[in-house]
Amino acid sequence: MKLLFTVLRVVVAAAIATAVIGQLAHSANLANQANPASVGFVVVNFFSFFTIDSNVASIVVLVAGAALVVRRVSPDPLLFTTVRAAVVTYMVTTGIVYNLLLRGIALPQGQTLAWSNEILHVVAPIYLLLDWLFAPGRVSLDGKRLWAILAFPIVWVAYTLMRGPLTIDASTGANWYPYPFLNPATSANGYLSVTLYVILIALVITAIGAGAIRVTRGRRQSRVKSRNA
């Protein structure tokens, strides 16, 4: 089982890295063709997507997880399990939000590579969830760890909403936001719609994060019951 997940983690990490690099190179190339001076702007915007940040974090977690198995570290350190719980929460949220709200909508990152898009929004979230549920090594987390899981989304939303009004996309002349539902200029009811979307997604992240923590505690309780049986 450990060998299987070690191999899978390395393979999926490589696939995610290929997808991120492929889309970044494609977007930067399109920007360079249109206006070489805009490449830096496009690169910063690229890494302002929650999807990209979550997938880059997934690469780190998967590689680190494989390394822990190779080094025969068992169980996993508490810090690693906490970060892993956070990343799987972000990735599952990414998969849900993309497939419910964004699939079929052109995002402001240049032409999207279809194969990269599917890896980042479908394949990677599904694997991260399966890895969390079935890979050995994770330790029990208490409810206080939920704040650690929520920390990055809170910072990301604050960064996005503060940066948007200050950032002008030279190609469109409009303010730049990574996702249309966060742009008050394109949302039906302006900031009211944005606020409702933020609250809804925050509830989803909180629920998924709490569920991820509950899974670790359920496994511990099962082991305790089996020893007492």
UniProtKB/TrEMBL annotation:
Query: Keywords assigned by UniProt?
Result: Membrane, Transmembrane, Transmembrane helix
Source lineage: Bacteria, Bacillati, Actinomycetota, Actinomycetes, Micrococcales
Q: Where are the transmembrane segments?
A: 46-70, 82-101, 113-134, 146-168, 188-213
Return the protein name: Pr6Pr family membrane protein
What InterPro entries does the record tag this protein with? Answer: Pr6Pr-like
